[in-house]
Design brief:
Chain B: It comes from Erwinia sorbitola. Chain A contains 14 helices and no strands. The two termini of chain A are about 35 Å apart. Chain B has a domain of about 210 residues: ABC transporter involved in vitamin B12 uptake, BtuC, CATH 1.10.3470. In chain B, about 80% of the residues lie in helices and about 0% in strands. The longest helix of chain B is centred in the first third of the chain and has 50 residues. The chains are: A mainly alpha (about 325), B mainly alpha (about 325).
Chain lengths: ~325, ~325
């Protein structure tokens, strides 16, 4: 039954991928593909990279959210809630200020380092919170993110980069083309790695004492998890921008249906993340055709609503 | 509440000191580095100063009222998403009427229409949110923050759908600066604030009672629900004023009120209300002076306030969690 559902999901994804390939300003159809080499070029240079980027970024950010929720033992966090994304964009801005012409690898590296630093700071912060209400953790994270953002805005204003900052952060796939998205394959590899070592995160999610008892190297698993989260956030923000709330919605929906065994849920999280992002992108491209709405705007609205429902719902389960 | 016996200045004297400090700062702000076309510079600075006075006033009072209402030192109207709601209302109005339709209103009419929308929505939403029993603080806070994000996202979505001309009109109104003050809007803001100040001042003793919480306040004869609605109405008016003047400033009110409690050393609204107003204006004028004159960074006051306010918030959150 479950595998049947998964296959249905895959079919849906495939359908969306086809839609994503054929929706756009220039009309690419099967017939024109056959007859017109220019159309083939559009497909290979622009449409295919875009769809691949959506697929990779969507599933990776969802999986990053899932890992983060496991490691913090908290349902309400994901990289863009706790300051990981915000610190990554601070790092990116600093590279832009210090050396505007830096190669994309350097930008990505710095953004990833900052993401790692921001996540580590958040982890330290929540360990200081003695009364660990499940809602305190995201609150502290949101505030930490706000502090990072204010520093970023301040620097961007000072160096007159406010507009470019808005450009990066908007989570927009319209500029994704051949030669600009390939780094996302790295993120795909991270996602695979996460899937392979998923059961360790499951154990770590039971808490430190339990993990040490069953012989897990707790500190190392935490570090690996944080590194994966930071890399995914760093690369995604450099290549496509912020995808708000994605890591929050998808893992929560999946865990409601399937529970918390990561080995089983990681493929689902990746699949649904990809479906959601590609779906939002296709919708965004159709609403005000021939212009488009970036995915982040749609995800922001959708994610906030789902988050609200989760908070209000969790009241019934608590205590 | 703790009153410091060791520093035994009476609240009245403390207010006088603050007022003296404020007058001094204002004097410096108006006269420092005055050269060239004096009349023009004075008028320009006067407008900025007036904006700061009104915003300090509105943020201070609205946050104090909100904290009295919720009996909490962390909640502020803007943390709870009220300012983003106001931005959403502005966006909605521009979106629905487009620029041509708006110009019929004029800036005053538009301000009134936006405020009316805000007051209506905010009173409904937050009465429901804060009036409901059994909601713990963290949940309310998180709901507020997420509502803020939701409002911002919806505004963002609509801004994407707007025509460039409409967007330019909006853009100029949703980024916090102290220098764009429109004389008409300043005037109407001053009127609104005077009116609200009058009402709040008459309520000051009742506010002391309300700060004890709903149960005791009701036992002492306060009509709780009616007062909550009334206060929310006043708060949303003040938020409308400050957002219309300078745009959203998430942590300004938090900073002001958390300075005011220890500086005033009193829990009585008769002292806290003027204290918040004075501290609010001092924060803005003093901050602007330091930035502009000492650090040579004009126009970034709002960002600095966001930064220090955000850190204060985390600190309060951690201390609150430790208790």
């Amino acid at each position: 039954m479950k595998s049947f559902a998964f296959i249905t999901g895959l079919a849906l994804l495939l359908g969306l991928i086809v839609c994503s390939l054929f929706v756009g300003v220039s009309r690419v159809t099967l017939v024109s593909l056959w007859s017109d080499p220019e159309m083939r070029e559009i497909l290979m240079l622009s449409r295919f990279p875009r769809t691949a980027a959506l697929l990779l970024a969507g599933s990776a950010m969802s999986v990053a959210g899932l890992i983060m929720q496991m490691l913090t033992q908290n349902r309400f966090v994901e990289p863009s809630v706790v300051g990981t994304t915000q610190s990554a964009s601070l790092g990116l801005l600093l590279v832009m200020i210090v050396s505007p012409a830096a190669p994309i690898m350097l930008k990505m590296g710095v953004a990833t380092l900052f993401a790692l630093g921001g996540t580590a700071l958040f982890m330290l912060l929540i360990q200081r919170i003695r009364m660990k209400s499940s809602l305190m953790v995201p609150l502290a994270g949101i505030m930490l993110g706000a502090v990072f953002s204010s520093v970023t805005t301040f620097l961007a204003m000072k160096f007159d980069l406010l507009q470019s900052l808005g450009g990066w952060e908007s989570g927009d796939f319209s500029s994704v083309m051949q030669g600009r998205y390939e780094l996302l394959w790295l993120v795909g590899a991270m996602t695979l790695l996460a899937a392979v070592i998923a059961d360790r995160f499951t154990v770590a999610g039971m808490g430190r004492d339990f993990s040490v008892n069953v012989g897990l190297h707790y500190g190392r698993v935490m570090l690996i998890g944080m590194a994966i989260i930071a890399m995914i956030s760093g690369v995604v923000i450099v290549v496509v921008g912020v995808l708000p709330f994605l890591g929050l919605i998808v893992p929560n929906i999946v865990s409601l249906a399937l529970g918390d065994n990561l080995r089983r849920t990681v493929p689902w999280v990746a699949l649904i993340g990809a479906i959601l992002v590609i779906g939002c992108d296709v919708i965004g491209r159709l609403i005000i055709h021939p212009f488009e709405i970036p995915v982040s705007a749609l995800l922001g609205v959708l994610g906030a609503i789902v988050f609200l429902v989760l908070i209000v719902r969790s009241k019934r389960h608590a205590h | 509440m703790r009153t410091d016996a060791s520093v035994s200045l009476s609240p009245g004297k403390r207010l006088l000191l603050l007022a003296a400090l404020l007058v001094g700062l204002m004097g410096i702000f108006m006269t420092i580095g005055l050269n060239g076309n004096t009349a023009y510079i004075l008028r320009h600075r006067g407008q900025i100063l007036a904006t700061m006075v009104l915003v300090g006033f509105a943020s201070g009072i609205s946050t104090l009222l909100f904290q009295t209402l919720t009996r909490n030192r962390i909640l502020t109207p803007s943390v709870m998403g009220l300012e983003s709601l106001f931005v959403l209302m502005q966006t909605l109005l521009i979106f629905a009427l487009d620029v041509g339709g708006l110009s019929i209103f004029g800036s005053v009419g538009r301000f009134l229409a936006e405020s009316a929308l805000l007051v209506m929505f905010a009173t409904l939403l937050y009465r429901w949110l804060l009036g409901g029993a059994g909601l713990d603080l963290h949940r309310v806070l998180l709901i507020g923050l997420v509502c803020g994000t939701l409002f911002r996202s919806i505004s963002g979505l609509m801004q994407r759908l707007m025509e460039p001309g409409e967007f330019a009109v909006l853009q100029s109104r949703i980024f916090a600066t102290f220098t764009r003050a429109d004389a008409d809007v300043l005037l109407i803001s001053a009127l609104v604030i005077m009116l609200v100040a009058l009402v709040v001042w008459r309520l000051r003793h009742r506010l002391d009672v309300m700060a004890l919480g709903p149960d005791r306040a009701i036992a002492l004869g306060i009509h709780w629900q009616r007062h909550v609605t009334g206060l929310l109405l006043l708060i949303s008016l003040l938020v409308a004023v400050s957002t219309a003047l300078v745009g959203p400033m998430m942590f300004l009110g938090l900073l002001i009120v958390n300075l005011a409690y220890p500086l005033m050393g009193s829990w009585r609204h008769a002292h806290l209300l003027p204290g918040c107003v004075l501290i609010g204006i001092i924060t803005l004028v003093g901050g602007q002076l330091i930035l502009e004159r000492l650090l040579d960074m004009a126009g970034t006051l709002s960002v600095v306030i966001e930064f220090s306010g955000g850190i204060l918030f985390i600190y309060l959150l951690l201390r609150k969690g430790a208790k």
